[in-house]
TrEMBL record:
It comes from Saonia flava. GO terms for biological process: chorismate metabolic process. This is chorismate mutase. It holds the Pfam family CM_2. Gene3D superfamilies: Aldolase class I (3.20.20.70), Chorismate mutase (1.20.59.10). Residues 267-358 form the Chorismate mutase domain.
């Protein structure tokens, strides 16, 4: 993918004065539902109307989409509202049908991106078309797999490409449905700064009340747009009810988001500074989360020491950790003084946690 600017042209040609916005229901449920939501979104910042036609569900028995019938509804959306349309494709048969019904943009989901075989099948089916294709990150945090899927499409002659960051699965329970791992998105941008990157806050959060904050973080990190699931009656949606917002809520989110435009040198400087600060905020949040996990382990250690009537302070262990961390710090360009202060504070907090457990 040498000529990355060529891939950016489809977004540049749109000449938008705001981030690209893709919105619509998680699933196309009925013709009435699809058209109602589209009409409520037509006079907004929405550029592409999304609706899931084929829904890859984690477990069988859940609603798996209306299938090709929904493509006719998307045609009506375009006819009645003028909105461009987009849907997810997971195999060559989906691609063929989507092309027949002139869907404007296709996206490839996280479960498909994870398979090079599926990505090649889709790339072959799309060869020779000028459709815009977005690739969601794979379910696991594997940057090479994500880029590899995009490269297969590019090799097949698809030039209008982009990526969607929808977060990553984890066995740990967090406040997110899929942890954002912003650092991976930042690395993606560093490798391909001219490849459009869209954030999907709906799948990252899994909760509608968190969508604004994640969207703002994405814009601060210079994402090119947002994909937000939108439903006129989200509580009664047939899939992913908790993460969908109403059209009015979406419009309010777009009004409230701070969008930093780069128009002159001063604004460009501030934009770069805000981007770097946003990256620091991401890492700071990761640090707090990691320290919280460390202290939970300290609580467990305190319980073990209480059972065996062992002293909280184990000097040999502490000196061993300190020596190792000073060496690691040097390799990362950190001064010995800083590492000592930081780990003494961490060690003291760990002691406090263990004493609390032992004295309970």
């Amino acid at each position: 993918m040498e000529n990355k600017k060529e891939m950016r042209s489809w977004l540049d040609d749109m000449k938008l004065d705001h981030p690209l916005v893709i919105a619509g229901p998680c699933s196309a449920e009925t013709e009435e539902q699809v058209l109602r939501i589209a009409h409520e979104l037509k006079d907004s910042d929405v550029n592409y109307y999304r609706a899931g036609i084929w829904k890859p569900r984690t477990r069988p028995g859940n609603f798996e989409g209306v299938g090709a019938l929904g493509l006719k509804w998307l045609q009506k959306v375009k006819e009645e509202t003028g909105l461009k349309t987009t849907t997810e494709v997971a195999n060559a048969a989906h691609v063929k049908l989507a092309l027949e019904y002139d869907v404007d943009m296709l996206w490839i989901g996280a479960r498909s991106t994870v398979s090079p075989f599926i990505m090649q099948e889709i790339a072959d089916a799309l060869a020779g078309t000028d459709k815009t294709v977005l690739v969601k990150n794979p379910v696991n945090p594997d940057l090479s797999l994500w880029l590899g899927g995009i490269e297969r499409l590019y090799t097949a002659g698809i030039k209008n490409l982009g990526a969607i960051h929808r977060g990553f699965s984890t066995y740990e329970k967090t406040k997110y449905r899929n942890i954002p791992e912003w650092q991976m998105a930042i690395e993606f941008q560093n490798k391909f700064p001219d490849l459009p990157l869209i954030c999907d806050p709906s799948h990252i959060t899994g909760k509608r009340n968190m969508i604004f904050d994640v969207s703002q973080t994405a814009l601060d990190l210079n994402f090119d747009g947002l994909m937000i699931e939108t439903h006129h009656d989200p509580d009664n949606a047939w899939s992913d009810a908790a993460q969908q917002v109403t059209p009015d809520s979406l419009k309010q989110i777009m009004r409230d988001l701070k969008i930093r435009k780069e128009t002159d040198e001063e604004t460009e400087y501030k934009g770069k500074l805000n981007n770097l600060r946003a990256q620091i905020d991401v890492i700071d949040n990761q640090l707090i989360g990691t320290l919280g996990k460390r202290m939970k382990i300290s609580d467990t250690i305190g319980g073990l020491k209480k059972q065996r009537n062992v002293a909280v302070l184990q000097s040999n262990r502490w000196n061993e950790i300190l020596g190792k961390m000073i060496l690691e710090g040097e390799r990362e360009g950190l001064s010995e003084e800083f590492v000592l202060k930081m780990f003494k504070a961490i060690h003291q907090e760990s002691i406090n946690h263990q004493e609390k457990v032992i004295n309970a």
